[in-house]
Amino acid sequence: MVNSANNIYIRTNPDKNPASKTYLSMRTNRQQDFQVASEFDSIDRFQFLSIRFLGRVRGAPGACMAMFTYVPADEIKNVQEADMEILTREDYDRVHYTNHPGYSIEGEVYPKATRNTTFPDGLKWNEWVEHRMDWTPNQSIWYANGKQVANISFQVPRDPSLMIFNTWGDGGVWTQNMTMGEEAYMEMQWLQLLYNTSETSDKRKRDGAGPKGRFLRKRGDGNVCRMVCSIDDEDDAGVVTWLWGNNTASSLLAGRSVGASFGGLISWGLGLVVLARWI
Q1: Which of 123, 177, 241, 255 reaches 20 to 30 Å from 234, CA-CA?
Q2: What pTM value is reported for the model?
Q3: What's the domain range around 23?
Q4: Contact 67, 164 (CB under 8 A)
Q5: Same domain for 165 and 224?
Q6: With the CA atoms of 102, 27, 212 and 53 taken in that order, what torsion angle do they form, in degrees rounded to the nearest 10?
Q7: Does the pLDDT of residue 75 top 60, yes or no?
Q8: 150 and 212 together in one domain
Q9: Could you tell me if 60 and 148 are in contact, meaning their C-beta atoms sit under 8 angstroms apart?
Q10: Which region is the signal sequence (predicted)?
């Protein structure tokens, strides 16, 4: 399996009456001797977050589409990962959520780590669905179009993590085999990432992520919160609602894309990609 940047691209949305003019496409394709995959990763300093994206999956059986936090380790027992996986060999409503590891090196399976389930309300992964994961200190919670689908409290990731999206297949037991010449896609219209970081402001000498190259810093004295905003009170992606607090800041934020003005929320749409590293 080979990751290729050529398999991540922006394309025009061919849908009838599309909600967006373009979307991000991530492709996996079966060649004669190998399978080409696609992946993009963030920096590795996110510690607890809410991530939402409007996406769909389509294409041939034999692929896995995944979104997950990830802390690598030399031994499987030390891996920290909360993931969503969709398999193109399965029914259109099937989805898998796991706080890894889901099994031990000896092959013991951990049932409490995984929820193998279906989307609510007849939703299908080959149609546009708003996926959401809230990673908190005590649980990972998963939603589809605003309805909770899974809640896992077993071995919740605890350390600063990467965020990864990938589309792949290896002919193994999990994905199974894709027919030569076939391909599959994960497509996204927009993505939002509301995050915390793992360092205090006095340790961040070089802040290379987030809008304008910086993370959100605490404003005000000590632990006093000077402004409260919401991203759940707006119908449009990438827009923040000021709830209460500093009036000057609220006037700057009102009705604006949070990706342009609010360091704690990364947002993109219509072809603007902001995550940090492409594979």
Answers
A1: 123
A2: 0.79
A3: 2-192
A4: yes
A5: no
A6: -60
A7: yes
A8: no
A9: no
A10: none
